[in-house]
Design a protein that fits this description.
Largest interface: A-B, 29 and 28 residues
Structural class of chain B: mainly alpha
Helix content of chain B: over 70%
Shape of chain A: flat
Structural class of chain A: mainly alpha
Radius of gyration of chain B: 23 Å
Oligomer: heterodimer
CATH class of the largest domain in chain B: Mainly Alpha
Number of domains of chain A: 2
Order of helices and strands of chain B: HEEHHHHHHHHHHH
Number of domains of chain B: 2
Number of helices of chain B: 12
Strand content of chain A: 5-15%
Radius of gyration of chain A: 19 Å
Chain lengths: 133, 288
Amino acid sequence: MMRRSLNLGFGIAGLVWLAVIFWLTTQVPMRDESKDWTGSLDPGGWMAWTLPTALFFAVIAGLLICFTWLAIRSPETPRKGVLGLMTTRGDRLFISLLGSAFICLIWLGVMGMPLWGGVAAALIYAAAVFRWV
Amino acid sequence: MEKPVNNRAWFLVLPVLLLVAFSAILPLMTVVNYSVQDTFGGNQFFWAGLDWFEEVIHSDRIRAALGRQVLFSAIILAIEIPLGIFVALNMPKKGIWASFCLVLMALPLLIPWNVVGTIWQVFGRVDIGLLGYTLRKLGISYNYVNNAMDAWITVIVMDVWHWTSLVALLCYAGLQSIPDAYYQAAKIDQASRWKVFRYIELPKMQGVLLIAVLLRFMDSFMIYTEPFVVTGGGPGNATTFLSIDLVKMAVGQFDLGPAAAFSLIYFLVILLISFVFYTVMTRQKEGE
């Protein structure tokens, strides 16, 4: 009963998250009769939202919801990985995100744009962190 | 008695979460938004992608400021941590002198940062400042306005004067928590003063030292007001640390995009170094 209500709650949170993503795409402004994907979502607004930055935060919010659901649904004990650190899933997510930011910055500094190679390296790094750290 | 566990208790954190969202998360989101756009004022923004990040990473000016900042933090930690421990070890443990020392140590911490800067700005002046004037009378060449080394020494001594008390008070609190039985056992074993420090006092102080190192690192890495008031980042750019450079860029030049990219990289560096410090020191603690 408890687990059903938990799954239902997080299911609703997931649906709200998808609805927000959909709503964001509807807010993209038009330019020369086509969608300007990097245009301002709130022209004149002080927060200066754009779709790419909104999606960036939406992905992080989605990850936090997902990891909270996992932590409640199947609690885990910290484990010791190759670095000798006691880590939980949340710690590994933090290490992955922080390391990924630096991988992308280093890619920008050494290789420059585009960043796709850096993103791929960051994903591989994140997978390695979750597997071995 | 078994404690009841109810995950709904997490909802009690909501008010704090809302407060943090308004004071930290929303401003941070705004900085991320600015870092990928350009503006000429009037809240009109134009997409710039990751150009500002590339510009900041390749900027010689920012690299030089980062180098100065790392050097400054390293010197500050190398002086303040041992000195704070030394002062704490030599403070009276009880009685009226203990209270007197505590008040005396707390005084520099109560002075606002810009006032500390002003005190040292006047103190170091060669025409009217007590320090500058005395050094000149002693025949020592000292002028923090036009000599980079003098400016660095002034800023470092000022920071040591201002913040060593914090380390000392934290260490003192750690020392006070050690039961007398430990010292009695060491006396029976005829342990030397060094061994008492190495095997009793230092391990017991490790928790507070972790906090002291983290606080002093983060504070020194983000230092702005004191050097700005004393030297204004000069002579030349000799004491232009990251925060001073960032404010020049964001407020002086109104380059919001590059300044936002710069502050995000700055934030990530602080986050990384703090995480490494914390991990290393808690691992050492677990090992013991």
